[in-house]
Design goal:
The chain is about 25% helix and about 25% strand. It has 8 helices and 16 strands. The N and C termini lie far apart (about 40 Å).
Length: about 260
């Protein structure tokens, strides 16, 4: 039987959702998994609370990184280090605000893929409006790229179709099928050992004005090594985001990683 590490980086930013998250994670229906929490909070109060939780492994990440995004990357890589040191076959990498179905490990294992996720939704600013979309993207075709070039003034860093992506359509998201994707729902993703033994998390080297994240880096490096990426759209996950975002003076949503 495969040995699974169910793991999440966390900080005091996620204190609002931790109880729901950990109660749900304990309900996963699989006989051979451990739960690892890596706390990268700047203070120690939350870590002391976490240590009181029973039957989970809690590690403190004392990274000196200042930016929240870099602290998150540090903790994800500590999860990988722990999995390698303790000979896990897979990591189920979670975000601490994602609520997974009880059967997520069994279902993702049955897909027999090296990288495969469930599916959840989030808010995105699209054409000046906040919209609710699946956190999952597919490649675009060369023909679609040519059409986009005619309609938009693309930045210099966009050279070809490989530099762009599209959201899953509503039909794809509701298909309950296994879909090959460019970027999966990284907050509920099963990763096989041969993948995480090669790939760590980081940030792509892009101009500062462009947004990027640890998930984009991971999937980019995976594709460079010819690993295929899949999303099991049948496995719909909850996303505890109502208290996650802050608002600026104009009512725009600000992700805590960007604070």
């Amino acid at each position: 039987m495969e040995k699974i590490l169910v793991a999440t980086p966390i900080s005091s930013h996620a204190k609002y959702c931790f109880k729901k998250f950990i109660e749900n994670t304990r309900l996963i229906d699989y006989p051979n998994y451990d739960i690892l929490i890596v706390d990268n909070s700047r203070e120690n109060d939350f870590f002391e609370e976490l240590k009181n939780e029973k039957e989970i492994i809690v590690l403190k990440d004392d990274t000196q990184e200042e930016k929240n995004k870099l602290r998150l990357i540090s903790s994800r890589n500590k999860i990988i280090e722990y999995a390698l040191e303790n000979n896990y076959d897979y990591i189920l990498m979670l975000d601490s605000d994602v609520i997974v179905p009880k059967n997520i490990i069994k279902e993702l294992l049955n897909n027999n893929k090296e990288i495969v996720s469930g599916l959840y939704y989030n808010y995105f600013k699209i054409d000046g409006q906040i919209k609710y979309r699946p956190v999952c993207w597919c490649d675009i075709t060369d023909e679609e790229f040519e059409d986009i070039k005619k309609q938009l003034n693309l930045p210099n860093i966009v050279k070809s179709a490989i530099d762009l992506r599209r959201f899953l359509t509503n039909e794809e998201a509701e298909s309950n099928e296994l879909i090959k994707v460019k970027i999966a729902s990284a907050g509920c993703m099963l990763i096989k050992k041969n993948v995480f033994s090669e790939i760590k998390y980081g940030l792509l080297n892009v101009p500062e004005k462009y947004s990027t994240g640890d998930d984009i880096y991971f999937f980019t490096k995976a594709r460079e090594r010819n690993f295929e990426i899949f999303c099991n759209t049948k496995l719909k996950c909850g996303h505890l985001i109502d208290e996650k975002y802050k608002k600026d003076g104009e009512g725009n949503l600000i992700h805590p990683l960007n604070l």
